[in-house]
């Protein structure tokens, strides 16, 4: 799973020319103090139809 995250991060950074942080956690896992403000300012990525 870590390799997949790294690949996604590199692809996004190359596509948009900006640094990207990916936050991942299970739905039942409480957010960390870092994740709360990061999620509040995050841009949600959605899959575009082909």
Mean pLDDT: 84
Distance between the termini: 25 Å
Query: What does the overall shape look like?
Result: globular
Number of strands: 0
The total of helices stands at: 2
Whole-angstrom Rg: 12 Å
SSE pattern = HH
Supply the helix-strand structural class.
mainly alpha
Share in β-strands: under 5%
Helical amount: 40-55%
| Low-confidence regions | none
Sheet with the most strands, sense and barrel status: none
Number of discrete domains: 1
Question: What does this protein look like?
Answer:
42% of the residues lie in helices and 0% in strands. With 50 residues, the chain is an all-alpha fold. The chain has one domain (2-40). The radius of gyration is 12 Å and the shape is globular. The mean pLDDT is 84.
Keywords:
globular; about 50 residues
Summarize the structure.
The protein has helices spanning 2-16, 35-40.
Describe the secondary-structure layout.
Layout: H1 2-16, H2 35-40
